[in-house]
Write a structure and sequence with these properties.
about 575 residues, alpha/beta, six-stranded mixed beta sheet, four-stranded antiparallel beta sheet, 18 helices, 12 strands, binds adenosine-5'-diphosphate, binds magnesium ion, transmembrane helix
Length: about 575
């Protein structure tokens, strides 16, 4: 893990090197001062050497001026270094997440993933900036002070060393419980974010059910768990710091007492004792910062570990080494003996399922919800891989094709339309980035939404999404259809595209959909049998598989499930006679 961490410094070698060099110089300047004090007390004052006192202090003054610049450099560029590393990690994590497949997002809540990008990495940045610098400077200070202490008086140094040893021993003992509590805090924080994300995106629903108190309660529980996880971690920190501070205090006290006795016995002189105590006072700073660093290391590494966890997930759905792009797909689709189950549930959704849609034809799937209709639509663009069997396009197993070439030739319209926060123009252009304005408008016209758009105050530049114009379900659906018109794929999948619309809207959109489906291989799923009447083949699915298949007329002739469904749907209603 540390190796992976160090990797992130590589592109910033120069800055990192400069940072350490400057920090090192700062430590050096600090180490000179006690030596200077010692020689003033021991030599210069007894000899009345005013000239050298002035020269020495001028040099020190000069060094202190230099230190202003050094401090600035470490404060500013050191943080820039940390932020650049954070920048790289952010980009890596985000691009990696973009590569991951549907099943990953089935298993991870959006809020938790967002937390990895923000919260977790924040702590890593702190560590990235302060970690190596503190470690380096503190080590230089400690080792430097030790060497100089030994020179002054080795017996006193041993006393000091005893307490340093105690401090280090204690720190290591406390390490494990601290890591555990920090990790717990981070995971509880992720839970809060997940809860927040879910509650806020569903806030309209909660209000509909007047369930705000229930949401507040759920949030309270997550928030409370976070609070108590913090309590545990603060407790661990408090024990740790108070213990360590005690050892440092003991070190100062004992060296003072022992030093005083040494002076009385004539073992050291006043100048030595002065330098000695000054060095010890230096000592406390690097020890404290090393202790702080171990804390930072715990939480930073816990964050980095969670970062690596996601980075380590290899997408299983990716281009095979031998994968070739499929150019100008004709659009023959075949599912051959396909069996499939979702990783998360492990229950078979499809067993030896076969289906063929010749190019340009339309096949409709009907059946109760939960039988696997949507699942079938997700296997064709290879959002999930089949457990056995094959999905073939123009006779090629889709596992032999590149994902980009496959997916760029399949258009999907679903019941829930997702619009990105952005302009209407951008949302339509999503179907084919780089499309010209006239192509976009053309697509909008075909989807029957152009007139509505130009009637808006900002036209195609109107913002949609949470803070933008409010669109009705039918309008959103038309934007989704315009997207697919623009994409112009040979294969079209309509998954209950109009099921959420009222009759009037459905009829209007039906028309655009028929134009869209023309000359494309189409797989359509719909509840309203009136919308699928014209399909070349209709598959009636039940939990046990395909119950019936055939054209509308053929199926009506039989006294089967389709016949019953069809008549049940129209009983008491005026059949759709618009066509
Ligand atoms: P339909 O579209 O016919 O209503 P689906 O294909 O959506 O049916 O679902 C088929 C079965 O697979 C259902 O039992 C459903 O609960 C399950 N399922 C659907 N999506 C997922 C998923 N992402 N993870 C786990 N199980 C799923
Ligand atoms: Mg479905």
């Amino acid at each position: 893990m540390l190796k992976k961490f160090v990797q992130y410094y590589k592109p910033h070698k120069f800055l990192f090197g400069m940072d350490l060099l400057v920090a090192f110089s700062m430590a050096g300047i600090d180490l000179i001062f006690p030596m200077f004090s010692r020689s003033i007390v021991n030599d210069l004052i007894p000899n009345g050497d005013v000239r050298r006192i002035v020269i020495f202090s001028s040099i020190i003054l000069l060094l202190y001026f230099l230190k202003i610049g050094f401090n600035y450099f470490v404060g500013f560029w050191g943080h820039i270094l940390g932020s650049r590393i954070e920048f790289d990690m952010h980009n890596d994590l985000f691009s990696h997440m973009q590569k991951l497949e549907f099943s990953f997002f089935d298993n991870n809540k959006t809020g938790q993933l967002m937390n990895r990008l923000t919260g977790d990495l924040n702590e890593v940045t702190e560590l990235a900036h302060h970690g190596p610098e503190d470690l380096f400077v503190s080590s230089v200070m400690l080792i430097g002070s030790f060497i100089l202490l030994f020179q002054i008086n080795w017996m006193l140094t041993l006393i000091v060393f005893f307490f340093v040893f105690l401090t280090i021993f204690f720190s290591i003992r406390m390490r494990r419980s601290m890591t555990r509590t920090f990790r717990n805090v981070r995971s509880k924080q992720a839970d809060i974010n997940a809860q927040l994300e879910s509650s806020l995106s569903g806030i309209r629903l909660s209000k509909t059910f007047a369930n705000e108190p229930y949401e507040i309660e759920k949030f309270y529980v997550a928030n409370d768990a976070h609070l108590s996880s913090k309590r545990d971690s603060f407790k661990a920190i408090a024990v740790y710091t108070s213990g360590n501070n005690f050892f440092i205090d003991m070190m100062t006290l004992s060296s003072m007492v022992a030093g005083g006795l040494f002076v009385l016995k004539g073992l050291i002189n006043y100048g030595d004792l002065l330098a000695f105590t000054l060095y010890i006072s230096f000592f406390t700073k690097p020890i404290r910062s090393l202790i702080q660093l171990t804390q930072q290391l715990q939480s930073g590494m816990a964050g980095f570990e969670r970062f690596l966890e996601v980075m380590a997930i290899e997408p299983t759905i990716k281009d095979a080494d031998h994968a070739k792009p499929i150019e100008a797909m004709k659009g023959n689709i075949e599912l051959r003996d396909v069996s499939f189950k979702y990783e998360s549930t492990g229950e078979w959704v499809l067993k030896d399922f076969s289906l063929e849609i010749p190019k340009g034809k339309t096949v409709a799937l009907v059946g109760p919800s939960g039988v696997g209709k949507t699942t079938i639509t997700q296997l064709i663009p290879r959002f999930y891989d089949v457990a056995s069997g094959q999905v073939l396009i123009d006779g090629h197993d889709i596992k032999d094709l590149t994902l980009t070439s496959l997916r760029s030739q399949i258009g999907i319209v679903q019941q829930d339309v997702f619009l990105f926060y952005g302009t209407i123009r951008d949302n339509i252009a999503y179907g084919r980035p780089g499309a010209t304005d006239s192509e976009i408008m053309d697509a909008a016209r075909k989807a029957n939404i152009h007139n509505f758009i130009i009637g808006l105050e900002d036209g195609y530049g109107s913002m949609v999404g949470e803070r933008g114009v409010k669109l009705s379900g039918g309008q959103k659906q038309r934007i989704a259809i315009a997207r697919v018109f623009l994409k112009n794929p040979p294969i079209l999948i309509l998954d209950e595209a109009t099921s959420a619309l009222d009759n009037e809207n459905e009829l209007a959109i039906q028309n655009s959909i028929e134009i869209l489906a023309k000359n494309r291989t189409t797989l359509i799923i719909a509840h309203r049998l009136s919308t699928i009447k014209n399909a070349d083949e209709i598959l009636v699915m039940t939990e046990t598989g395909i119950a019936e298949r055939g054209s509308h007329d053929r199926l009506l002739e039989r006294d089967g499930l389709y016949n019953r469904l069809y008549h049940a749907q129209f009983k008491g209603y005026i059949p759709d006679t618009s066509k």
